[in-house]
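thought: fold this chain, then report.
action: predict
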Amino acid sequence: QLVESGGGLVQSGGSLRLSCAASGFTFSNYVMSWVRQAPGKGLEWVSKIHSGGGITTYADSVKGRFTISRDNAKNTLSLQMNSLKPEDTAVYYCAKHASSRWSSERDYRGQGTQVTVSS
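observation:
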């Protein structure tokens, strides 16, 4: 199970920190991602982190503004979002990949948390 929290309404330029609590599987064994879905649009990948936390990657749209991290001891995935823009408005989902392989596909995601950025 993946349960996201931390979403809300923030002004443009503001910050939010999203969290995802994982349970029911060995969290430290899996690559994890954040994905988002804006109103009327498809699912967009945002960021990915290796099972050990040492490798991360970001979509160009968020690079330099968002930071993904994980605490394997607490089974928690986080996304620090700074310099938020109205176009970041979306439902944000925590997603598990199928294995510890960097190239593995996503195979499960949580229910999501709404992030709304006002201009």
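thought: worth noting. The chain has a mean pLDDT of 97.
final: tokens above.
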